[in-house]
Amino acid sequence: MTQPTVDTLFEHALASLRLRRYPRLRGETLRAWDGADLYLLDEYGRLDAPAAGAPLVLNDQCGALTLALHACGRSASAQLCSSGDSWLAQAALQANASDNGLVLPEGVWRWPLDAWPEAPSVVLVRVPKEMALLEAQLSRLGSLPAGTPVRLAWMDKHLPGGLVDRVRHYLGPVNLLRGAHKAHGLQAEVPAGGVPAAPYPTRVAVPEQGWSLTVHAGVFAQQQLDIGARLFMASVPKNVTGPMADLGCGNGVIGMMAARRNPGLPVTFCDESWLALQSARENMQACLPDETAHFHLGNGLAGLTERFALILLNPPFHRGHAVDDTVAKMLFRQAADRLLPGGVLQVIGNRHLRYDRTLQRHFPKVRQIGGDSRFVILAASR
Ligand SMILES: C[S@@+](CC[C@H](N)C(=O)[O-])C[C@H]1O[C@@H](n2cnc3c(N)ncnc32)[C@H](O)[C@@H]1O
Question: What is the pLDDT of residues 61-105, one digit of tens each?
């Protein structure tokens, strides 16, 4: 039933693994690894006999790096550490470990603000899509012993502008390595004498509400409120009659508006990004401390048993680097199952995405309640 259509056999000199993305989708079209993973494992293989300690992996997507390093048994696996912001990446790691009969040591996974091991043998960094997240991670490398080797890799087609200069800013001299697997890499090490601080979290003003939002590194709309979010905020209804959810909450501004317009009603903030939820948590605490808020880190509403009178959604239209409406469609389906009788899913989207058509597959009633030349705001109910 849930068979993917892409290749799942990951092969490298260090390990062969069966790898799939999470959630497991029928007819999945995206592979669970890419050349940047192979590149980093090649680099690891080239290191001299690993020093005491184990690698620290940053931004593993679906476990290719962490599981290959664990399976090859070249280092003290008990200290292997993999850190990233994505709950889906963490879930893919756990599911793929189980599929391959691998038992990862307790505490392998660390969320972005968790402590790292004190002296990893090497830091292997997949360059994430969000440069801000990378910068926040690089600035933290200053806590590791000077001289710790660092390797970064990215797919050539995803090279972020200014990457080499940014890495140099934090780590000093870097070597650009030869390309392989349609990927490239940088060689650096933790410098003696400290690493500059990164300018995160940022502050985003919402003057009309008197809010100054905290936005952690890599969270959507890092420097200013998203224009779609601003339009969506204005459409948040009053007089809601039951619990509300901000699905894909980012910094939480949409759910905060719902809480302000409906005092006394609880809001559940949901995101798969740990730093997004952390931003929302801090923003609710700072701006609306008397309102009741719950925070759900996971794949949309999966794992929640509660039903909602209002679900607000400004959906993602990417999966990783790929423009893809798979996630939006999945969130629509989830919302259809989690509404209270009479409940409403309210969605904003770019006009050309035609979310109205997709929503009509799950909701008998879909009407446009707002928008402008670029966006539409839709209310869907059953
Ligand atoms: C377009 S942003 C909207 C953020 C915020 N609501 C706003 O309007 O500014 C979409 C959000 O969905 C989150 N997201 C992506 N995939 C998700 C998933 N499977 N489950 C939950 N959240 C997800 C992203 O991390 C991101 O914060």
Answer: 999 999 999 999 887 666 899 999 999 999 999 999 999 999 999
Give the mean model confidence (pLDDT) for residues 359-371.
98
Residue 26 has a pLDDT of 85
Handedness of CA 174, 124, 118, 109 (dihedral sign): positive
* Strand ranges for the chain from DSSP E: 9-12, 15-18, 56-58, 81-83, 109-110, 123-126, 149-155, 175-176, 183-189, 202-206, 211-215, 244-247, 267-271, 293-297, 308-313, 318-319, 322-323, 339-350, 365-371, 375-381
Q: How many A from CA of 312 to the centre of ligand 1?
A: 11
Token digits of residue 126: 């997949």
List domains and CATH numbers for the chain. Answer: 9-189 (3.40.50.150), 202-381 (3.40.50.150)
Q: Residue whose CA is closest, atom 6 of ligand 1?
A: 249
Both tokens assigned to 62:
């679906």
Q: What is the pTM of this model?
A: 0.97
